[in-house]
Amino acid sequence: MDKVADLGRDIGEYIRQQRNTAKISLRQLSKLAGVSNPYLSQIERGLRKPSAEILQQIAKGLRISAEALYVQAGILDLPTGGAVADAIRADDELNERQKQVLLDVYESFRKENAALRSTTTAAPQSTVDKSDVDHKRPTEE
Question: Residue 82 phi/psi, 5° resolution?
Fold first, then answer.
């Protein structure tokens, strides 16, 4: 089957799963997202591939990250960075610009540290001869 059709079906299935998890009816999500009921039904069945704008409206109605829908729809690549990056993206107290600045700084630190690790050789082994070390207990005075 065509890859675009697969993406449309996948995003529709994902939206349906999220809607069911949130215990929201198709009609309720339609109202919350400002999308017609028939159109939303077609998206869920994989008959329509929604635009980024429609996905954003649906995400808002589901109270999930629009980014999650974009990734699922193939609009964005899967985010990287682990738990810290996920926490930044999920923070409702930050606007999108602030999140991106934090993510950029965080990623620059990760790359810098990775570069340091790859260029630093392992620390040389200690050359102390064990026979030189006095293993006696200190004497009491």
Answer: 75, -155
